[in-house]
């Protein structure tokens, strides 16, 4: 990696906000294949801070990786995942929820808006934000402001989310160096590292069972099969594109469908 690439990689960072308690997130985070620090970020929110990432070694762009991670965590889960990311030239977010296409917004380094207003409104609607006050505050982030750079715009998004219950631990500031983010996350009350990447939750774990509330329902096997069918080509596409994020999304679909099938069959046994 050249000196310029090293500097660019060092300027990258990301935070993953999950609208779920840490216990629920801890059950599925290992499927991403990346060690992360997990901490509470409000009464109903958790934050994942990556310890590394393909972007740190001249790999994929940080936005592509974390969007794939957000999609992987949100697939089939009853809670959305918001990825905040930044690099040397831009900053932005991506919101994933269920099987729906992620929505996101990007600002260039000086804070120049480079997204679509519709995406910001979809973001507010999916999170159930106030359709008047919160949407107005988000709309202001899509207008030119010479005094707000791209990372200040992310802080503006977080300010809006405080009304939705988000409360990041001290020191988790968009744009901070990765080492500082990890240190701040580790110092948060109750913080823990996610399980090893090679560990897979089993269908008998109560936390995973709670994360899959439909496994005992009549449509469980059909849904599980659909997840496997959708996940296999997505995994293959991610591997062809050398996309760690989308490979993780496909792998999670396959694993989730397979575990749902196993759990459903186990529940049917006399």
Explain the overall architecture.
The chain is α+β, with helices and mostly antiparallel strands and 270 residues long. It has 2 domains: 3-193, no CATH class; 206-268. The chain is 44% helix and 14% strand. It has 10 helices and 7 strands. The chain has helices spanning 3-10, 22-28, 62-74, 117-126, 133-140, 150-161, 178-186, 206-211, 220-240, 244-268; strands spanning 13-18, 36-40, 46-50, 81-86, 90-96, 103-108, 192-193. It has a 7-stranded antiparallel beta sheet, with helices on both faces. Helix 3 packs parallel to helix 10 (244-268), helix 4 (117-126) packs antiparallel against helix 5 and helix 9 (220-240) packs antiparallel against helix 10 (244-268). The longest helix has 25 residues, at 244-268. The chain is globular and about 50 Å long. It starts with a helix and ends with a helix. Mean pLDDT is 80; it is low at 1-7, 199-220 and 265-270.
Gyration radius (Cα, Å) is: 18 Å
Give me the secondary-structure category. alpha+beta
Order of helices and strands: HEHEEHEEEHHHHEHHH
- Gross geometry: globular
- Order of strands in the sheet with the most strands? 6-5-4-1-3-2-7
- Count up the helices: 10
pLDDT under 50 segments (min length 5)? Answer: 1-7, 199-220, 265-270
At a glance:
The chain is α+β, with helices and mostly antiparallel strands.
Write the layout of secondary structure elements.
Elements: H1 3-10, E1 13-18, H2 22-28, E2 36-40, E3 46-50, H3 62-74, E4 81-86, E5 90-96, E6 103-108, H4 117-126, H5 133-140, H6 150-161, H7 178-186, E7 192-193, H8 206-211, H9 220-240, H10 244-268
Helix pairs in contact: 3-10, 4-5, 9-10
């Amino acid at each position: 990696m050249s000196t310029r690439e090293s500097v660019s990689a060092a300027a990258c960072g990301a935070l993953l906000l999950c609208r779920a308690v840490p216990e629920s997130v801890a059950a599925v985070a290992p499927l991403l294949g990346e060690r992360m620090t997990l901490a509470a970020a409000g009464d109903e929110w958790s934050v994942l801070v990556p310890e590394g990432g393909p972007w740190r070694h001249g790999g994929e762009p940080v936005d592509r990786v974390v969007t794939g991670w957000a999609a992987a965590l949100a697939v089939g889960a009853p809670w959305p995942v918001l990825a905040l990311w930044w690099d040397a030239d831009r900053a932005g977010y991506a919101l994933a929820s269920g099987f729906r296409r992620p929505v996101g917004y990007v600002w260039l380094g000086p804070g120049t808006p480079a997204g679509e207003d519709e995406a910001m409104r979809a973001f507010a609607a999916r999170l159930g934000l106030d359709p008047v006050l919160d949407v107005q505050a988000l709309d202001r982030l899509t207008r030119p402001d010479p005094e707000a750079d791209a990372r200040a715009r992310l802080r503006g998004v977080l300010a809006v989310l405080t009304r939705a219950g988000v409360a990041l631990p001290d020191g988790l500031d968009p744009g901070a160096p990765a080492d500082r983010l990890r240190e701040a996350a580790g110092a948060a009350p109750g913080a823990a590292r996610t399980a090893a990447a090679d560990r897979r939750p089993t269908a008998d774990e109560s936390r995973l069972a709670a994360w899959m509330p439909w496994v005992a329902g009549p449509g469980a096997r059909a849904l599980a099969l659909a997840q496997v069918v959708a996940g296999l080509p997505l995994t293959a596409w991610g591997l062809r594109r050398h996309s760690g994020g989308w490979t993780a999304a496909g792998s999670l679909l396959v694993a989730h469908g397979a575990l749902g099938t196993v759990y459903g069959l186990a529940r049917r046994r006399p």
